[in-house]
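The pair is quoted verbatim below.
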Amino acid sequence: MTNIYDVEAPSTGELFTTLLSREDISIKHILSSDSVPDTLYIQDEDEWVLLLEGRAVLDIDGERVALGRGEHLYIPAHTPHRVLETDMGTRWLAVYMATQTSTPLL
């Protein structure tokens, strides 16, 4: 057992720690510095993020979205997104879910 609050923020970038991983779901703790890389994410999984501490500004498919402590956001699979700004020590809980392929009912 570990405590996510025992981890200190990196001086630059982000620290990703997998808390749980299964075939259909992955839960990660993300700890951001105030200098994050300009990375475009386009993932095959749906993603739900909860901001536990700090502040962040994201670009979600061309729309600027600000998140504060306690706010959460759902990002469907294949949606282009990037983190634009974070406060030092911004702490996230991210849940990645495999997308389901629908089987038509006969």
Notes: DSSP finds no helices and eight strands in the chain. The chain has a mean pLDDT of 94. Residues 25-97 form a domain with the Jelly Rolls fold (CATH 2.60.120.10).
